[in-house]
Amino acid sequence: MVFIYVQELARFLFGLKCFHFDLASIAIIEEDEQKIVVKLKGIQLEYANALRRMCLNGIPVFAVDDVVIIENSSVFADEALAHRLSMIPLKTDLSRFVEPSKCDCHSDTGCSNCRVLLMIDSGPPDTTRLVTSAELTSEDEIVKPVSDKIPIIELAPGQKLKLEAYARLGRGTEHAKWNASNVSVLTETDKEDEHILTIESSGCLEPSQIVLSGINELANRIDDFKQIIAAL
Amino acid sequence: MTKVVTERWPIIYDILKREGIARQHLNSYDDFLERGLQSIIDEVAQIDIENAEYPYKIQLGKLKLQQPRIMELDGSITHIAPREARLRNVSYSSPIMLEASVVEDGKILESRFIHVGDMPVMVRSNACVLRSFSEQKLVENGEDPNDPGGYFVINGSERVIVGLEDLSYNKIIVDKETVGGNIVFKAKVYSSIVGYRAKLELVMKHDGLIVSRIPGSPVDIPVITLMRALGLESDKEIAIAVSPVDTIQDELEASFEKSGEVPTSKDSIVYISKRIAPGMLEEFQIKRAETLLDWGLLPHLGKNQDNRKEKSQFLGEAACKLIELKLGWVNPDDKDHYGNKVIKFAGQMLADLFRTAFRNLVRDMKYQLERSGQKRGINAVAAAIRPGIVTDKLNNALATGNWGRGRVGVTQLLDRTNYLSTISHLRRVQSPLSRTQPNFEARDLHPTHFGRICPSETPEGSNCGLVKNLALSAIISVNASSEEIIEKLYDLGVTYFLDAKIELKRDGTRVFVDGKLIGYAKDGQKLAESLRELRRHSKIHPHVGISMHQPNIKGATKRLYVNCNAGRVLRPLIITKDNKSLLTQDLVEKVKKRFLSWSDLIRTGIIELIDANEEENCYIAIDQEKIKKHTHMEVFSSAILGAGASIIPYPEHNQSPRNTYQSAMAKQSLGFSTPLMNTSTYVRQHLMLYPQVPIVTTKAMGLLGLEERPAGQNCVVAVLPFDGYNIEDAIVLSKSSVERGLGRTFFYRIYEAEAKQYPGGMRDKFEIPNAEENIRGFKGEKVYRLLEEDGVIAAESNVRGGDILIGKTSPPRFMEEYKEFEIKGPYRRDTSVGMRPSESGVIDTVVMTQSHEGGRMYKVRVRDMRLPEIGDKFASRHGQKGVLGLLANNEDLPYTSEGIVPDVLINPHAFPSRMTVGMFMESITGKAAAMRGTQFDGSAFVGEKIDAVKEVLGSAGFKYSGKEIMYDGRTGRTFPAEVFVGLVYYQKLHHMVADKIHARARGQVQMLTKQPTEGRARGGGLRFGEMERDCLIAYGASMILKDRLLEESDKTEIYVCERCGLVAYHDMKQRKFVCRVCGDKARVSSISIAYAFKLLLQEMMSLNIAPRLLIKERV
What we know:
Chain A is an alpha+beta fold. Chain A is built from 4 helices and 10 strands.
């Protein structure tokens, strides 16, 4: 695993030609399901920070974007409910899905490549009960709430909730619901051009994947930028 | 040490939890229903029907109040609860049933309970149906169990009678005045009985003569003459009634000299009668004088001849106090001393109103019965009573706040912006003083306000210091029985003043009950003490105030005042004995566990309620350790603040005006104002989606229920400039935080329409107006598109400005407009109710009900989700308000090494000049609280000590200063200085850009002046005012000036006759210009002027002025 990162990063770094070649390296200091800490060596602060920003909200992840409310007799207004749903982090599979803007379907509703349907049908409760993210069932096996314990709404007897929610890929720059990580921090060390990047995932992606995708995204954007410069 | 102080909090908690925060309103109203109403009726007691053939009497008996109800149009009766009144726009009131009997020759023939009018019912009072409801039952009835009550529901809207400050009644107040360079001494009394007030004034001029000014007399009457007229014949009697002390009697010389001409009582009455009714028959004059003495003079002492002795005694006392003032033995009374004030609440205010209304009813009934002649018996009486007189008077007064005699604004619409604003509104006190006059002293904070009136919570500007708010510890006294007290006093050895020997009169203490001299006591101090002892053993009412006044001057009169009246502001104090407080830790624990209530502590003489007068006799320790010779100890220091100031954490560390600003601002914050949003019928209402309980709280917040009804959110706040986007009190919010729900509120507005019936059988109709049906004011198909078959919009539809919510058509306004031979039938008007032009939203609720007039009524509620946007107003709890200047991108925001990104960035310049240190303390306390995962207490004076907070921070790995190293999100570099970050509770205030944004290019004009309309709701223009005009003149930009004031405003063309200079016109039929003055010789030209100028010309012409315009060709 570590090897792959270093390779990836090296590829990206070499492509940039603005680093101290010999010094550029990356090392994982700490890693678990939620958090990754990496040491960036020989990378200028500007690029390191660009990577931090990318990891924060530059990577596409899934979030509920469109909600069709079939029945909502709860105390919450439809808009408020939709907002709550959008805040639920969804496990994201970047390999099978593309962002709607890059999808070949070019439709407003989207297709199986660019959206995932999730549903809630509370049924009429007999007692006051809490509807959690466990009831937000997905048509996809992977794209579903990262936790079953996220409270959505409490229903009283006689109240009912039935809705369809469409999740799409998007970026945190557009809306915070698409933030890939909750914490993305770049700190200094004593040495020059050595930085520690700490990423805490929102749960949508593996922390390591966030870093990886961040690097890719940054590389692509720099490529794009180079082309624009060249075209001038 | 702090521990000792805070542990007495349960006492304050118990008082307010048990009594509720609107107790003063409820007590006052309940007392009025129980006793005031009956006493007003008893005053009338009997009505003589002076009928020539069958004179008889109507005797008024007991009064009963029935259950609140409304009478439907068909005459059926519906019992209602407040919810239904609010929903259906009706008044929540109960019928007053009065027992009336027909009496002939002293025998009761028939009697019956008759409906004499409806009494508006105060919510949660004894007359309210909710009174006995359990919490569960309240919820089932659509009521908030936490609602304090204390207001009325009139025509569906909630009205509060705010407390009205007034000078104490029946109390002699002496004062020094300078009139034309001479010092004049005055003694004033407002003699008052239920619903009636008469002012008496004694004046001592520079020549030493004391005269009295009484209502009903156009001239001053020497006080000696007045006393003599009241039955004191000899000079000696009079002198002793004033005072047996020689020094005082000497001062009466001038007065005695002057009144030497009228030596007897009879002469005195004649003397008075000549002056009050000059030019009348002597017989009448005497009668007038007698009535004046019995009715107009000091009515609180009684209205009978037997009361004259007491009245003369009272006058003597007033003269005595006046002379003592002149001698410098007593100081002028302080009008701003809270002991000289009472607060009138709903009961007293309603008593005034009901008295006049009931008298009108009686007069009307009498007139009708005397006119009807033959018909008699109880049924005729019942038929002659028009309950509408009372009902309408009370209803109108409460609905408009017009109390008659020029008193306006007595009632106000209950503030429901958030829960705190409701509470604060119910604890408000108004001063009757004019807000246009300076009244500097009256506006100042007075030492006697301590523990009674909040030192911080008052508005700024014209009402500053005149509108006050009750402190948490304040308790308003209720009426106690003065007869009982008087009896007790005689038992304790007080001698009736007529029986008192001269020595006792000279050396003893005068004893007053409610301003009335009842006798003399040998040792006043001892009497006061034993009376207090009785109160502490609950032998007399705990609200009785006992204050002893004993000047240190030989010969000066000693006075003991005992007050039983309602409306005095009391505060609880702990009694100390042998330098120890009687309130033991054990007792506090019991109160805390609710084994004991605060009234048990009152009953057992551990706590007592002290009014401002009695407090002058007390020596009060702040704390247990400090007790030396103290008589009392404070209960709890934070309770000196009112509701508004109680939510500020660490207020004692703020500059004092900041607390005042915050007290006003908290009432504008949006939050969770009611859990009953589904049935709420307030025209405008806000609801915060994710309100939070503050992490740094105060004790009072928990007590007042503000933690169940919060209004704000805890934010991570960094004190840091951000690219200039938070300059000048702007704040920067994290865009991500806003997207996650920070500051997200809903705005609800209710639109309503009612189908009215008109004379002639026509009525309004709910329908979709049809273009083909000859409807005037048809607005075009588009705006009606959302209406359903019944003419009303469907729930959950999206609506925008101008869309019709309720389709309604009405018959023509004037019938004569309809001509029989017209081809078209009668037209109808489109009176549909549409969205406000600048608002949009989603239809939340549609309610259909029946109005009081029997017509169908719809209420449509529209909701609009409001995300914070640039320009919205936010504030912390320290008077630190600001508008949103930027929604900063998440990646650009600074972060700490732990990854904490602030929600709010506030500019450091907000602090040095304002000195809101409390906000810093809240910030670091909040941070410590977050580390501990609990709420921390920031109550005034007793909040978590900052050293303890620092320790928590230190152990959590933070710097004790609250500062942290932060990285700039844009560059990744650390900031050169450490940044102060912490948790601060922020409030979203209800001033939002969405409600204010406005611009106009072209648009509506006014009908009269043809100038652009004013105001956003009418799509108005922005005024180019005088000062703006001055700028252009100064600059010499005449073309712009003309453009603004003429071309883009009300330019018109008129025709003017050059020969006479008057306005001419163009006759379309003759195709020529006509000047009615010059006829054929007219030379008419057209000119461009402002339409307002044309109006001016015409208005002048209507005043018989001929304004001639001398015009010539423009060069």
